[in-house]
Amino acid sequence: MPVVFDLLQRDTRAKLDGPRHPEKAHRPDQPVLKKPDWIRVKAPGKPGYAETQAIVRQHGLVTVCEEAGCPNIGECWDKKHATFMIMGDTCTRACAFCNVRTGMPGALDADEPARVGDAVAKLGLGHVVVTSVDRDDLADGGAEHFARTIRAIRDAAPTTTIEVLTPDFLRKPGALEKVVEAKPDVFNHNLETVPSLYLTVRPGARYFHSIRLLQRVKELDATIFTKSGIMVGLGEERNDVLQLMDDLRTAEVDFLTIGQYLQPTKKHHPVIRFVTPEEFGSYASIATAKGFLLVSASPLTRSSHHAGEDFARLKAARLERARF
């Protein structure tokens, strides 16, 4: 019953708060392709899932696992792995692919960093991922809130390694520096798609700004691992993806993730095609040959999926490369 009750609560909140995506409400419905067999996942329901859900609720926290409708939530939450989404559940941008609520966010919750830290400690996480909505309404885009959350996790769970998945901090001078100064172990910023699709898929962002952001992290602190990810199946061409890999390597990005785009609703950008597991394998081979320390490419790959195991692999790959 807890899962059913929670869904009812979310449905009630949606009715009170209005449409989740008001900017998409009057758009024509897009076709929805039938998912192939390799996309299927099991519904959540194991004991670990309920325990993770209870801790998240008790601390009044938001997770991108729920807000973005991640297909891996059952697997991750059963292992008590959750990706915390700070600064609220409402984003100031309206990307065509994203299921996170859009609109004008509320004020920052000053106690949220401490609650995240406490939740990380109670879940016993060896590695945690912290992301956020875009907060273009804030002078620093929420960079100081990220830094406070990193410090709070360090205080509550000193041995936990920390990965941040940040917005692009577009037109927010000095914001990136605040986050890097707090020394996360991994700095992730997703490109999401190839540059030719930005105007339709990610209109509020700028491709080369995002590339430069990742490059700047390495200039500020070369010890921090950098990471980025894209979705495929949005209409990109293979050569576009290969060029994107080169752009990321020019910025010295360590880790690339590639996953299948899944359409949240009929009002979102359509899935143009489902990329086969064999094609994902090819992308992984090429990206590895181009010099990434680590590559994760599969239909169900997501930025935070297996993040703890991937961090261990990243460290091992860096040590191995340093030997030569």
TrEMBL record:
Catalysed reactions, as listed in the record: [[Fe-S] cluster scaffold protein carrying a second [4Fe-4S](2+) cluster] + N(6)-octanoyl-L-lysyl-[protein] + 2 oxidized [2Fe-2S]-[ferredoxin] + 2 S-adenosyl-L-methionine + 4 H(+) = [[Fe-S] cluster scaffold protein] + N(6)-[(R)-dihydrolipoyl]-L-lysyl-[protein] + 4 Fe(3+) + 2 hydrogen sulfide + 2 5'-deoxyadenosine + 2 L-methionine + 2 reduced [2Fe-2S]-[ferredoxin]
Leading EC class: transferase
Pfam families: Radical_SAM
Family: Belongs to the radical SAM superfamily. Lipoyl synthase family.
Residue ranges crossing the lipid bilayer per the database entry: none
Main location per the UniProt record: cytoplasm
Cofactor note (record): Binds 2 [4Fe-4S] clusters per subunit. One cluster is coordinated with 3 cysteines and an exchangeable S-adenosyl-L-methionine.
Residues at which [4Fe-4S] cluster 2 binds: 91, 95, 98
EC number: 2.8.1.8
GO-annotated molecular function: 4 iron, 4 sulfur cluster binding; lipoate synthase activity; metal ion binding
Gene of this entry: lipA
One annotated GO biological process: protein lipoylation
The entry's keywords: 4Fe-4S, Cytoplasm, Iron, Iron-sulfur, Metal-binding, S-adenosyl-L-methionine, Transferase
Record's GO cellular component terms: cytoplasm
Residue sites binding [4Fe-4S] cluster 1 per the record: 65, 70, 76, 304
Pathway noted in the entry: Protein modification; protein lipoylation via endogenous pathway; protein N(6)-(lipoyl)lysine from octanoyl-[acyl-carrier-protein]: step 2/2
Domain Radical SAM core: 77-293
InterPro entries linked: Aldolase_TIM, Elp3/MiaA/NifB-like_rSAM, Lipoyl_synth, rSAM, rSAM_sf
Keyword Cytoplasm: yes
UniProt name for this protein: Lipoyl synthase
Cofactor: [4Fe-4S] cluster
SMART domains linked: Elp3 (SM00729)
Location of this chain's protein in the cell: Cytoplasm
